[in-house]
TrEMBL record:
Designated name of the protein: Glycerophosphoryl diester phosphodiesterase
Keywords: Signal
Domain GP-PDE: 25-253
GO molecular function annotation: phosphoric diester hydrolase activity
GO biological process: lipid metabolic process
């Protein structure tokens, strides 16, 4: 009786809203949701705010110090001190705009672990040398596994080497390429999980979103802050949108 009822509902199209909800474009806070009072990009607070508004994910940027500590910061330096060529001791007391000390990735991931529904979109920045990129990859994979947050972390990078190394050392890892110089077919051949390109590239290559999805790739776009650009991507049924204005995007989706 129940099976027959379900079949009738399916044929009637009454389950379509549920399917659509599951397929809805996901909202990611770019460097967290930082555009709030007394907040800062790539801060623990911005991660907390991403969770507070029920964003799908919170993106953050990662570099490695000479002594192997992974830290969260967008630029290669903080207050003029280069991260990649200095020890953690040289930067650990430096603060970001909201007064927080520069977070370590471990601190960030431990905070994110409190919100198991929130994805942490983990961008490993290009480093000056391949050796340092490879160190950052291995340290990241090890830390994520140690903290038990593998199911919450999705990796992204502008460096093809970093993306390749992530898949080499953990084929199951979710890895999307940012740089925009690979077609969906080329990204698929490298076994990447997805592409994550500037929205202008999808306008120049209007079939790429659908092409990528047909190949089984997850499609993301950055950094989409204007409503008309958001709507364009929503109309294309893109998988993720990364934005500094997550609440604006959420209202459009509703």
């Amino acid at each position: 009786m129940m099976k027959n009822t379900v079949k009738k509902l399916l044929f009637a199209g009454l389950f379509i809203p549920t399917v659509m909800i599951n397929a809805q474009t996901k909202v990611i806070g770019h460097r967290g949701y930082w555009d709030t009072p007394n907040n800062a990009q790539n801060s623990i607070q911005s991660l907390q705010m991403s969770n507070k508004i029920n964003a799908f994910g919170s993106e953050f940027d990662v570099s490695i110090t000479t002594d192997g500590v992974l830290v969260v910061n967008h630029d290669a330096d903080i207050q003029g001190v280069d991260i990649e060529t200095n020890t953690y001791d040289k930067i650990k007391n430096l603060t970001i705009k909201n007064g927080e000390k520069i977070p370590t990735v471990e601190q960030y991931l431990l905070e994110g672990k409190k919100y198991p529904k929130l994805k942490m979109i983990y961008e490993i920045k290009p480093h000056k040398t391949k050796e340092n990129e490879d160190r950052a990859v291995l340290a990241s994979l090890e830390l994520v596994k140690k903290l038990g947050v593998e199911n919450q972390v999705e990796y992204i990078s502008f460096s093809k080497n970093i993306c390749e190394q992530l898949k080499k050392h953990n084929p199951k890892s979710h890895v999307s390429y940012l740089n925009g110089d690979l077609s969906p077919e080329e990204a698929k051949k490298l076994n990447f999980t997805g592409i994550d390109y500037h929205y202008s590239l999808y306008k120049k290559n209007p079939t790429w979103i659908k092409d990528a999805q047909k190949l089984g790739l997850i499609v993301n776009s950055w950094t989409v802050n204007k409503e008309d650009d958001m709507q364009y991507l929503l109309d294309q049924k893109i998988d993720y949108i990364t934005t500094d204005k997550p609440e604006v995007l959420q209202k459009l989706i509703k």
